[in-house]
């Protein structure tokens, strides 16, 4: 396995949904010059890396995850020269940029698909998954507007035909076995796209639906793992500092596949977050750990996380996220303190944390919005960034009707300019917790982690961190009620505290930690 890019040891990511970040040409949609303009701001918060959602030419039926041409910038975002300028300016500052690679499907308007949709056999006939002409149309299969008979397989929306990485178990004559020659061509096509951007200086990719390339794959997704194991050796050899983060959600599969990072996506069996309230805010059955109702289960998280960590330590990073463009932002019912408690946890955990734009000011889930570009339930987490109290919250000077999505209508909506002035704002909290992480080696991306207290349906969660000659103990109680924990060790002075008070009483086996409701504390150990 290739060595991990050095820069990841200190990487702290900020995710930008470019549509909604900053519009500089008054068309109501964010753009690359807008990102360039805000690099000072992002760096000033303490971030040194950016993941940007797709910015390629696209009909935007799924917000750009339907790529028409992987090697062109969508005109609404700017030009290739704007991208080159952004890369150069980020590198000048020591920052790194990940683009979003969509390897599993293209737009139905991609040239490959237009050719593949023709009856006459051609170089692209097998680039997508096509059934035999007599196949019945069922969910996941669709008719083309081209001359070809049979149906094509799609991954997400019907406008996103699946590229052909083959089938793990072939049960139909039209299915290509994984690894067969047509699949090799698909793989080479994706490698060329990766090379194109890495040659431009991009530092790597977030990889969309990285887990789902080979169809009907078995447990552990062995055939999809093989595809990545075929892609990475060449790419790592040519670009040893390039980094890839997978949308996989199972680090113990994604890291051996060759990814340097995998998102911990935190869902329980009901599809709700084990950690944060990323589910429907109205759904009272959701029982995340970070909720003042205190119905969460730290043990379920701790068991899964420590298992993933044991299997991946030193080989890749687990990435905790504050949110992303696919999941609900925190609802209005969650207080600023509760948001800070969840961020205090994220930024004192190992691995590489990602913050979704706007989460640094506590932007809230917007309800009842009309979807755009296939956003569905995700619409309310994609509204424009709130920069100040000016027109359109400083996002754009366009007419309000031309905005990509409406701005949060709340007249008390949070904004950057105001939060910069308020010492207790979420924004200043983010700055201070990132600074704390950088100042204390035991909180770093690579430092050790062990669970000290995580019991079923019980608060708090307590963990030890160790690295660079420093040892720390971190405890977090997001529940509104007081709680206590028996720890197997003594603790030293308080390094950092937030919210309610914490007290320590020495005991025969170590100490008893007593925490008030909604509290967080870091002790020296
Ligand atoms: C995951 C992306 O994050 C999401 O936004 C997109 O709609 C699907 N993959 C399909 O590409």
Task: Outline the structure in words.
- There is one protein chain.
- The chain is α/β, with parallel strands linked by helices and 525 residues long.
- It is 23% helix and 18% strand.
- The protein contains eleven helices and 20 strands.
- It has an eight-stranded parallel sheet with strand order 11-10-9-8-5-2-1-12, with helices on one face. It has a five-stranded antiparallel sheet with strand order 13-14-15-20-17, with helices on one face.
- Helix 5 packs parallel to helix 6, helix 7 (251-257) packs parallel to helix 8 and helix 9 (336-346) runs parallel beside helix 11.
- The radius of gyration is 24 Å and the shape is globular.
- The two termini are 35 Å apart.
- Bound molecules: 1-deoxynojirimycin (NOJ).
- 1-deoxynojirimycin (NOJ) binds next to loops.
Tags for this model:
alpha/beta, 525 residues, 23% helix, eight-stranded parallel β-sheet, 11 helices, binds 1-deoxynojirimycin
Radius of gyration (CA) equals 24 Å
Classify the helix fraction into a percent range.
Answer: 10-25%
Ligands bound here?
A: 1-deoxynojirimycin
Total helical elements: 11
SS strand fraction: 15-25%
Please mark out the parts with pLDDT under 50 across 5 or more consecutive residues, or reply none.
none
Total beta strand runs: 20
Mean pLDDT: 95
Q: Can you summarize the main beta sheet? A: 8 strands, parallel
Shape: globular
The structure class reads alpha/beta
Q: How far apart are the first and last residues' alpha carbons, in Å? A: 35 Å
């Amino acid at each position: 396995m290739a060595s991990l890019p050095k820069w990841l040891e200190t990487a702290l990511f900020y995710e930008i949904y470019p549509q909604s970040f900053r519009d500089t040409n008054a068309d109501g949609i964010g753009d690359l010059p807008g990102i360039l303009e805000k690099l000072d701001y992002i760096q000033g918060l303490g971030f040194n890396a950016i993941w940007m959602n797709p910015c390629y030419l696209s009909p935007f039926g799924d917000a750009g995850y339907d790529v028409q041409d992987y090697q062109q910038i969508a005109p609404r975002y700017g030009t290739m020269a704007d991208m080159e300028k952004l890369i150069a300016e980020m590198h000048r500052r020591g920052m790194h940029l990940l683009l979003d690679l969509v390897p599993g499907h293209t737009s139905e308007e991609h040239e490959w698909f237009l050719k593949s949709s023709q009856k006459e056999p051609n170089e692209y006939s097998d680039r997508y998954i096509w059934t035999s002409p007599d196949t019945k149309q069922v969910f996941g299969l669709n008719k083309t507007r081209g001359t070809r008979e049979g149906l094509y397989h799609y991954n997400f929306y019907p406008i996103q035909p699946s590229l052909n990485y083959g089938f793990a178990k072939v049960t139909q004559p039209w299915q290509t076995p994984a690894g067969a020659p047509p699949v090799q061509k698909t793989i080479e096509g994706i490698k060329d796209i990766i090379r194109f951007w890495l040659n431009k200086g991009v530092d790597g990719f977030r990889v969309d639906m990285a887990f789902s390339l080979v169809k009907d794959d078995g447990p552990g997704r062995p055939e999809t793992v093989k595809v990545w194991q075929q892609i990475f050796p060449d790419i790592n050899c040519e670009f040893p500092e390039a980094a890839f983060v997978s949308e996989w959600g199972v680090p113990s599969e994604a890291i051996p596949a060759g990814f340097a990072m995998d998102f911990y996506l935190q869902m329980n069996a009901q599809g709700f977050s084990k950690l944060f309230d990323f589910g429907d805010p109205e759904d009272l059955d959701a029982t995340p750990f970070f909720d003042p109702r205190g119905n969460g289960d730290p043990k379920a998280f701790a068991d899964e996380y420590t298992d993933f960590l044991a299997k991946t330590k030193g080989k890749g990073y687990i990435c905790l996220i504050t949110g992303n463009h696919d999941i609900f932002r925190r609802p209005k019912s969650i207080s600023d303190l509760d948001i800070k408690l969840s961020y205090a946890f994220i930024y004192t955990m190992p691995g590489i944390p990602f913050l979704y734009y706007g989460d640094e000011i506590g932007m809230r889930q917007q309800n009842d919005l009309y979807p755009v570009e296939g956003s569905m339930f995700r619409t309310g987490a994609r509204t424009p960034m709130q920069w100040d109290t000016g027109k359109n919250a400083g996002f754009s000077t366009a007419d309000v009707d031309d905005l990509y999505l409406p701005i949060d209508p709340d007249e008390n909506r949070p904004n950057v300019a105001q939060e910069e002035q308020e010492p207790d704002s979420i924004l200043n909290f983010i700055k201070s917790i990132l600074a704390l992480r950088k100042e204390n080696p035991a909180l770093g991306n690579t430092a050790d982690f062990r669970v000290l207290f995580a019991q079923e349906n019980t608060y708090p969660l307590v963990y030890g961190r160790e690295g660079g000659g420093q040892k720390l103990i971190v405890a977090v109680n997001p529940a509104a009620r007081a709680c206590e924990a028996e720890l197997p060790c003594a603790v030293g002075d308080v390094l950092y505290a937030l919210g309610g008070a914490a007290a320590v009483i020495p005991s025969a086996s170590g100490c008893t930690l007593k925490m008030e409701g909604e509290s967080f504390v870091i002790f020296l150990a």
